[in-house]
Amino acid sequence: MFKALDDNCEDIGGDAGKAAALSHAQVVAEHAVAAPPLADKDEAEHAAEPHPGPDVRPAGLVRRFEAWCARADLAPDLGSDIGSRKWLRGLATLLGLSAVAIAMWPDFSAVEAATGTPVNSRERDEFRSQSIAPLALGADSGRHMGASPLVHPLAHVPERPSIQLVSTLGQGDSFGRMLERAGVGGSDISRITELVGNAVPVSDITSGTQFDITLGKRPAANAPRALDSMDFRARFDLDLSIERGADGALSLVRHPITVDATPLRIRGTVGSSLYRSARNAGAPVAAIQSYLRAVDKYINLEDGIGASDEYDMIVAYKRSAKGEHEVGDLLYAGLERDGKSRLQLLRWGKDGQMFAASSIGQPRSVPIGQPVAGRITSTYGMRRHPILGYVRMHAGIDFGAAYGSPIYAVADGRVTYAGRHGGHGNYVRIQHSGGLGTGYGHMSRIAVANGAHVRAGQVIGYVGSTGLSTGPHLHFEAYRNGHTINPAGISIIARPQIDGKERDAFKAQLRALLGVEPGAALAPIAQPESEHAEAEREIDRLAPRKVG
């Protein structure tokens, strides 16, 4: 509190001597309002004039702008009063600020950095050899760190006493070139070729055969290394080894492999699909295809085989004691219905043709097979021609098939015409026995020559759309003594092609194959007595046995 007396003024309110108690805020306000004393009249007049200094007007403008913003409420809550003037004013503020922010978006331009020192591959390997990278990457750089004073240089580096490598005989490669690439000397190559040739023809060694080769020391400086040993699979049933004896001479060692040649016999019910049934039984794809082609010459595959019929196929099969196996050709194809045999085909002769067991004694009529894998699109008889537009005789059957599909001869015969033939386009005609002939039209390409002899099932051309044709298909015709007949259901007279001398051997081979039990080829291979005797050693009893 302050006590104030007014000595120069009159007594106020009659109590001149009475003190007035003022607060600190009142005192400060009183001093702030009180004008400072002026020296003279000019200074007083100057103080009375308005002062346009920068500290007064901008502050006032800011206060007035702030007051306007408070009244206008430019940033209201956009979550309430949606759609009102106040809400639209806030939305305008948001969009304006967003536009300003986007306009001031910085530019991501490239910044030039310091230029790196160019490093070539040799210097890069040097850097890596002195870092931890070689340890992490298996020391793949191949560089060595600088030698320390403890390292003494060698006058020469000793060679490895032996080198073991694997060399493969490539496609079109020769046995000698393969050994030369492996580093075998010329004199050893000649001797090895001679030794191997005494066991198997060198030209019969199949491509892809791998040779385990061990090379020893060099007999002289800059000379090729001497061959110590070489092992490889010469045949399915034979391993060969070339070894160098104590006297320095090379010798051949044979290692026969136990092989079981029991044919693989597979039987089963046709069901909904003969192919799927045979595949589920484990038959190889090539064997199934050979079976279908052989049976198709005697029985129509579409409607001649029932779901309850049983198929029987036997294929050549070899397996070795090392676990490998080879699947050969189809040896026997059979079909049964109600326990009775409908068809028995046996591979016979040099050409490997399939002969029916019932046709070796006397001629018989055999229905022809389908000349192409497709469906019948037009039958034999009168019809409106799709291009000419009028009704005329259609002297054949049309089979719709994909462009380029192979066309097969339905029976043995001789090609009497092969070339362009009017509306038939590319056309082939074959003369068979018994005055029967067949024709094949609209081919894209002909695969036989005029006068050639063809076998049943041989490819004679490919499906096309030449001549008067609206799309790829085969026009198949049949002739009897020069006149067209309906190809559907015709048969070929199959004459016996096995004379009396071969007939007994044919029947013996058939009985031997039919005596094979289904799945007998998958039984464990019986080891020779010599191998059983060797296995009785004490050390072999302790060794683990491999099953299967």
UniProtKB/TrEMBL annotation:
Residues 392-487 form the M23ase beta-sheet core domain. Keywords: Signal. Residues 529-548 have a biased composition (Basic and acidic residues). The keyword Coiled coil does not apply. Residues 524-548 are annotated as: Disordered. It comes from the Bacteria. This is M23 family metallopeptidase. It comes from Novosphingobium album (ex Hu et al. 2023).
